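Can't paste images in this forum, so I'm doing it all in text. The chain is below; anyone willing to post the predicted structure tokens underneath?
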Amino acid sequence: MLNDDLDEDVLRKRIRTAGYCGVISLAFTIIIGFALGIFSGAAGIDPTFVYVDIAVLSLLIYGTFRANRFAATGLFVFFVGSKLLQWHSTGSMSGIVVAALFGWFFYHGMMASWELPGVLRALAAREQRNDRCPKCTQPIIPSAGRCTACGASLTQRVVAG
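Text version of the structure:
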């Protein structure tokens, strides 16, 4: 767990951020493919591998945007694996700062996608219990220390009146 106080909006933002980083990574893959002439076969590299890379990355990004935890995990593993393979084949660790930044966003997106179902279950259970502010009877918003409608503290016992 990253933090016990995370709410649905924070988790969804982390998932979206990981998805946007995936789109940027996909764009770089396509641009570099065209720049190096990989798609035309001019670089001496089989373009099939690049097409497969683009297809897999696209599917994982789509799944990440849909908050699929296996797709988000796959995106993180695919990114780290491709960077390790790239660094091993070239013999240099070029772009490690950008890779670390993207890896950080992918990691947090992956963790958020695993935590989101638990948060949604807790929200559904809270709604089924019909938790309401004891002062104004408005529904309680999770992780808020105060009622958003009347400002009453939710951690203290309030006498309705």
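The two ends are 39 Å apart (CA to CA). Residues 156-161 have pLDDT under 50 and may be disordered.
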